[in-house]
TrEMBL record:
<dbReference type="InterPro" id="IPR037445">
    <property type="entry name" value="MAGE"/>
</dbReference>
<feature type="domain" description="MAGE">
    <location>
        <begin position="7"/>
        <end position="206"/>
    </location>
</feature>
<dbReference type="InterPro" id="IPR002190">
    <property type="entry name" value="MHD_dom"/>
</dbReference>
<dbReference type="InterPro" id="IPR041899">
    <property type="entry name" value="MAGE_WH2"/>
</dbReference>
<protein>
    <submittedName>
        <fullName>Melanoma-associated antigen D4</fullName>
    </submittedName>
</protein>
<dbReference type="Pfam" id="PF01454">
    <property type="entry name" value="MAGE"/>
</dbReference>
Amino acid sequence: MEDEEKLSQCRNALLVFVINNIENKLPIKEEEMREILGKDKALLKECLPSVIQTLKKVYGIVLQRVPDTRKYICYSQLSASSTAEYDLEQIRHLTLLFVILSYLLMKDCRVDEDQLFNFLKGLRIDIDEEHTYFTGNLRKLICETFVKQLYLKREKSDSETDMETRYLFSWGYRATMEFPPKDVLQQTAGILGKEARDFVSIYNKYCSNDNNEEPMAVD
């Protein structure tokens, strides 16, 4: 009975820890969760499945391990396009993030940092100037915050021909969970007044398996 009570207390402690770390959207390290349980690996292994189930069933929150790491992310089962659970600043950040993810998706590859920033500047979003809507330090938001939250990946170019250090942006793991690419494609196409099918290669990659549809032919 005492063992079961201790196990229940450990589960609750771990649950509270995870919930308290959801809002900042930073990955939760496995070692941080072990610290809560007295660095007991076996106890974490025993408690974690129950915590994951409770988060999903009671709170609608998914706790998922990031592949090839000992880190976990939390995200809502609700679509990220639903703004009901966000404050104004978070909505603004998500709007900018959606713009960036849409651009990266349409390029269907990693994009050079300067290329991304020039695209944003074309939309009158200069990351080194104050913006009336997004406000704050946009360079830090894009290059640091979104990267730490795993919405974006920012990696050094491995090209040996580059004279200076170049960085490339691509979708981060959290983005693939919260923003299904097919949904981003459909919304972006709608904004552009087109159908998702009009973007043939991207549509074939992310949407052709839906409802057993045949891939679109490339002209």
